[in-house]
Write a structure and sequence with these properties.
The protein has 3 helices and no strands. By secondary structure, it is mostly helical.
Length: 73
C-alpha cells in the first residue's frame, strides 16, 4: 500500500469513527434546545419532544451523508 493510500485510509477511518459522536451530539443539542425553549415558553414536554425529534433527524442525516460519502470510494 502506498503512503498516499495509507493516509487517505486513515483520514476516512477518522471521519467514520467520529460519526457516532456527531450523532450523539446532534441529539443532545436538540434535547437541550427543546428543554430551554420549554422553560422559556412554559410548554413543558412538547418542545422537548420536538427538539428530540429534530436531533434524531439531524443524527440520521449525518449517517446518510456518511453512507453517501462511503459509496464514492
Amino acid at each position: 500500500m502506498a503512503e498516499k493510500d495509507k493516509g487517505n485510509t486513515f483520514r476516512e477511518l477518522g471521519y467514520f469513527a467520529s460519526l457516532g459522536i456527531s450523532v450523539a451530539l446532534a441529539i443532545v443539542i436538540g434535547l437541550a434546545l427543546g428543554y430551554w425553549l420549554d422553560s422559556v415558553f412554559g410548554t413543558k414536554p412538547i418542545l422537548l419532544l420536538v427538539g428530540l425529534g429534530v436531533g434524531i433527524a439531524a443524527g440520521f442525516s449525518n449517517i446518510i451523508r456518511a453512507g453517501k460519502k462511503a459509496g464514492k470510494y
